[in-house]
Every structure is written in C-alpha cells, then in structure tokens.
Predict the 3D structure of the following.
Amino acid sequence: MFRTRDIFVISLLIVVAVLHSYGFGLDISQADRPLLHLFVDAVVVLVSFVGVGYLTWENHHKRKEIEALHTQLHHSHTRISDLHKKLQQASSNYIEVIHEQLQAWELSPTEKQVALLLLKGLSFEEIAAIRATKEKTVRQQAIAIYRKSGLNGRHEFAAWFFEDFLD
C-alpha cells in the first residue's frame, strides 16, 4: 500500500514529467530552439519518468519486505508463545517436584515456606520481612531445613534442586 507521502511525490513527478513532455513536444515543433535546450528538456522528462518508475518499484519492494517481516514476526510470536507455554508447564511440574521433596524431608509448613524463599534467592533479612518474623528465627528454620535435608548450607541446598538442569 502506498503511503500518502509516496503518492504525493510520485504524483508530483508525474505532473513534472507530463508538463515537461508537453513543453518538449512544443519545443520540437519550433525549429528555432537550440539543441542544448531540447536535450535538457529530454533529460528532465526521462529523469522524471525514471524517478516515477524507481519510486514505484522501491515502494513495491519495501511493501514486500514489510510483509515478510510481518510474517517472521508472527512466526516468532507463535514460537515464543509455544515456548512460554512449555516453560510454564515445566515450571509447574518442577514446583510439584520441589514440594514432593520438601514433603519427603518432612519439613514443617513454615520450613517449607522458608525453603521456597531460600530457593528464590532471598536473604534471611528479606525472608524475615516477608514472614513478619525475626531474622534469627529464619536462620534457625534454615538450619533445621539443612539438617533435615542432609545438606550443608544454602548453596548446597539450592544446588540440590538445580543440579539436574546443568547436566
């Protein structure tokens, strides 16, 4: 589809080409016109028509490029949407696995909450603020989590859940 600006420029060039063609025709009919004048008029007419043709071709070419990019964008959106759905499904499945493991370690409900917040990477201070408790309480719950899981600290605890992703 032609844009208004493109239509204006092409129309302007067509008008210039037609007017110069008319003037060129009048000049040819008069024998007293210098050859250089006729040559310049012929070049102006030719350049005007070539310009119209080029702008029309360029506009068509750009429209095809835009359509191709639009198609690529649509395919990319579809792929991203599909990947997002797969990621959500994997996340949902992985959350279930985490909860099953926390249950297998026989963590209390508050320990499970703290464990999930630890896996999200929150500090003891941040966890205490979220749970409206003292940081010392969160530290004690974390120690109980590590003891029940048989793991030695926050890094080993997190690595236990994420290690399979690195293989």
